[in-house]
Amino acid sequence: MDEHQHGYIGRKDDYLKRLRRIEGQARGLQRMVEEDSYCIDILTQVSAMTKALQAVSLGLLEEHMAHCVVHAAQESDAAGKEKVDEAMAAIARLVKS
């Protein structure tokens, strides 16, 4: 684990609030399926939840690049490259999802 704080630490409460809202959306989706809601209505809510997760992902990625990657690059070229590679792998996973 890194000795320094993670880049998102200053916005931790915001991320937790967003994630709790997403958790509520997931429970709402479960309820909609249990109640045999109309397919398109469920899909609309899935889309909203997906967009909310993407917003969290992009925010975390931005924080990672601005804080963790910059901090590692200041330490050494090798450490910076490692963090960039790590970020690129995360981006690839996000794009594929």
Ordered list of secondary-structure elements with their pairings:
Layout: H1 12-34, H2 39-75, H3 77-96
Alpha-beta content class: mainly alpha
Instruction: Give the name of the CATH superfamily.
Output: Metal-sensitive repressor, helix protomer
Order of helices and strands: HHH
Could you tell me the strand content as a percent range? under 5%
Architecture, CATH level 2?
Up-down Bundle
**Count of DSSP strands:** 0
What is the first-to-last residue Cα distance? 26 Å
Number of helices: 3
Give the domain tally.
Answer: 1
Residue runs with pLDDT of under 50 for 5 or more positions: none
Q: Provide the CATH topology.
A: Methane Monooxygenase Hydroxylase, Chain G, domain 1
What does the overall shape look like? Answer: elongated
Radius of gyration: 17 Å
Mean pLDDT, all residues = 91
Text of the CATH class: Mainly Alpha
Sketch the major β-sheet: none
Helical percent range? over 70%
